[in-house]
Design goal:
2 copies of one chain form a homodimer.
Chain A (H helix, E strand, L loop, with lengths): L1 E13 L8 E3 L1 E6 L2 E7 H7 E16 L1 E6 L16 H10 L4 H17 L2 E8 L3 H10 L2 E8 L17 H18 L2 H4 L1 E7 L7 H13 L4 E5 L3 H11 L3 H7 L7 E5 L5 H9 L3 E4 L1 H8 L5 H6 L3 E4 L12 H16 L7 H7 L2 H7 L16 E5 L16 H7 L6 E6 L2 E5 L2 E2 L4 H26 L2 H7 L4
Organism (chains A, B): Paratissierella segnis
GO molecular function (chains A, B): hydrolase activity, acting on carbon-nitrogen (but not peptide) bonds
InterPro entries (chains A, B): Amidohydro-rel, Metal-dep_hydrolase_composite, Metal_Hydrolase, MTA/SAH_deaminase
């Protein structure tokens, strides 16, 4: 009998190994020193291992933890102040973001990360500037992080319509140094539990010189580039105005796309452009709910996949999503693509579950350590409670209905247990490594201040939400 | 001091009265003998009323209960066995439905209704045949019902492609008599808590003679007709094959559309057809999630509204939705329409909230008794818990973010209290009038039998889900 830290016994396990979902019945896992030691039939598991902690998950389903490929967690403090609006950035976000202190942002990150974890996310894919607070929280509560640090040359100021962003070398270097600083502090700490990526904001915000430098530095550090790509007409205007060419052909010309490039959104990339990016073995992160709400667009994930590319899912941000719940992203990805192609067979449940787990791990370059249930990988696992109306009844014959119900019916609160690198983060739906009430109280305090201070600019801009307030529609 | 049954004190109340959402701050309601006795500022409420039960809902939001305009609750027992499939009815549902006993159907109804209620639905809009079990449960647990009973002449059998349905007068009369029987047993019982509607299945399933009879009988009984309308190409083929004309012009010709007609889906109605129905003051029920999953289509609700028609929301059924959660319907309705029109301002949060409450009450003809918080209406109310990551933080200034977060972020489990006609059905998220575990156990038993018996036909049909089972994708 070998001693291990945890044994989990299940009736239903989805490993996400292989081409499908890797279903196993009456199997269990042995977890030791953070990793999956064995995946075996329950009878053999009992014969070979004894554990400090034994979890009988017979009324639950064991899955790899969800991976969120792209988030701006710091926007958690601004949840719900920008949607149903055409100019999301200037008329929605701007007056609130202008008043958001770094402390408020950190508080928002804690809220967003806690929310995601309670919904079953074990890898937080954060992106942005001033991101040390988020990294601290990720490290402290024990989840996995794939964090990209924003690099940009374009000065932060209000630009006139059609005006090209002003690139400033000093500003660019400052953001690059922040990235390098975060990289040296957090990359690969806790046995590789946090990965730091280079995050040039987009080809329109970063100079050619800096982009080349970022490419070189990221390669030297054996990490990846995580970058917004072909986000919309504003980006296209900047690119054609500055270089006379759209983002993707321009970046391809300078050799930017390769297996270490993660492109975010591709909101309005043309079909041939999507094929270029996928063809270079770069990956794509799709934020279905956010882009649906903010732009009314279904991004070209299917084209990317059909061209052989890997696509993962992300929840983007809490103003204009407005949640961090990968189950919601799976559902929206499935339904929005069915509608886009007017074909109910497009993006079936099993496929979007892969995009939330193993495919997302591949997209982010962490599939050797997480994303599926396999001996030697870290024990990033969730247990989903079957005693829930949304998942009942359970059919195992002639077909298993669990995955369709997880994708199309589950709400997130069915997630009972969350384990990351063998550490139990959530148990019986309650967080073990953070205090939800403290997070809620703290973020409310920051929101009260932001709301007060944002009022003048909000009323001056007089966007759709200001109109709705006057009409008693909010 | 006047004595009442319940007083609820809130900081945030949305009455849904007026053109918007009727927000009131620091108000409360007095409830007596099932009805809303007063809606007053908290200070005045305290001065004038004392109550048996006092609910301090300062950390919750008070709203009218949600209304689900169209459900097939009996399909609850088949949740998740038909989606991601082109021929939903024949390749998805058929092998399972063939094995569904009336007892299994009733068990499914209890599951679906319980699920809906826990997600904040106070009016269950059930539709179908063999519906007495559903009516019984609605009556027993104390929720509101708007139930339509299926009438059809078309014999239940497998038809060849292109074959016209065989109308059988005896069969038609039998279904009509069932409807009349249910009507006499349940209509307006418990002070009008249950309404029974006439439910001809669709213009393709019912003879002209029967449609005319239904119209006459429903008028005599002062109730409404609830009918599937322009559901898809199968319906169109039947109508053009039989009458040489599409459903809507044909029904308009016989004067079928008026303020007592509720049209369901209008999945592929043409723009001019939609305008005909709306122009006759008939109403429409939109099932965004179901039609998105089953057909990959966004129904023409916006055209219906723009033509002056009333649109309410429905969750349809648990195979091919797969849930009964009006919050999910609000979200999908908002996002799918933004994508359809590529315009983020289409179907804002406040509008879909109206479609789930007061507009749905109007669509179903029950707005005099429910759908908003108003003196004299029944106390059909919900309290939504603000101490939830998905709804945090709360902004009240310069804009209120609660409704956008309810629509785009809430999952359903934020619903804390459900009151129907002054009776508390759910409190502290726990049901008071039904036993969830009993419902879950019972429905599982039926599913086990159905699954076993459906296996041969499932494998013979060999639809997409059978293929996915072999490929280990389920």
């Amino acid at each position: 009998m070998e001693k291990v830290d945890i044994i989990i016994k299940t009736k239903h396990m989805y490993t996400l190994e292989g081409e499908g979902v890797g279903y196993l019945s009456d199997y269990g896992v042995a977890i030791d020193r953070g990793k999956i030691k064995a995946v075996l039939p329950v009878s053999e598991l009992k014969k070979n291992y004894e554990a400090e902690k034994f979890i009988d998950a017979s009324d639950k389903v064991l899955l790899p933890g969800f991976i969120d490929g792209h988030m701006h967690t710091g926007h958690g403090v601004l949840r719900g102040v920008a949607q149903d609006i055409s100019n999301w950035m200037m008329e929605g976000m701007a007056p609130f973001e202008a008043q958001r202190s770094i402390e408020a942002k950190d508080s928002g990150s804690r809220l967003a990360i806690a929310e995601a974890v309670l919904n079953g996310t074990t890898t937080i894919g954060d992106d942005g500037s001033d991101i040390a607070g988020s990294c601290d929280f990720i490290q402290k509560i024990g989840v996995r992080g794939n964090v990209s640090v924003r690099i940009r040359d374009a000065l932060m100021k209000t630009y006139k319509a059609g005006e090209l962003y002003i690139f400033d070398d000093n500003y660019g270097e400052k953001t690059l140094n922040e990235c390098l600083d975060i990289f040296s502090k957090y990359h690969d700490i806790d046995s590789g539990r946090i990965k730091i990526r280079f995050g040039p904001q987009g080809p329109d915000f970063v100079s050619l010189k800096m982009l080349k430098k970022v490419k070189k530095l990221s390669k030297e550090r054996n990490t990846k580039i995580h970058m917004h790509l072909q986000q919309g007409s504003r980006e296209t205007k900047q690119m054609t105005g500055r270089y006379g060419v759209r983002s993707i052909p321009w970046l391809d010309e300078i050799g930017y796309f390769d297996e270490d490039f993660i492109g975010i959104h591709l909101t309005d990339a043309l079909e041939e452009e999507v094929k270029i990016v996928a063809g270079r073995k770069a990956s794509m992160i799709l934020c279905s709910s956010s882009i649906g709400i903010i732009d009314g667009i279904v991004p070209p994930a299917k084209i990317f996949q059909d061209a052989g590319g890997i696509v993962g899912l992300g929840s983007d941000q809490a103003l204009g999503n407005n949640c961090h719940n990968i189950i919601n992203e799976m559902k929206l990805t499935a339904i929005l693509n069915k509608v886009k192609y007017e074909d109910p067979e497009v993006m079936p449940a099993w496929k979007v579950l892969r995009m939330a787990t193993i495919e997302n791990a591949k997209a982010l370059g962490i599939d050797k350590i997480t994303g599926s249930i396999k001996e030697g990988k870290y024990a990033d696992l969730i247990l989903v409670d079957l005693n829930q109306a949304s998942l009942a009844p359970l059919y195992t014959k002639p077909m298993r209905n669990f995955i369709p119900n997880l994708v199309y019916s589950a709400r997130g609160n069915e997630v009972d247990t969350v384990i990351v690198a063998g550490k139990i983060i959530v148990e019986n739906k309650a967080p073990k490594t953070f205090d939800m009430n403290e997070i809620l109280q703290e973020v409310q305090g920051h929101a009260d201040v932001i709301g007060e201070r944002a009022t003048a600019q909000f009323n001056e801009i007089n966007g759709k939400n200001a109109v709705y307030m006057r009409e008693n529609k909010l």
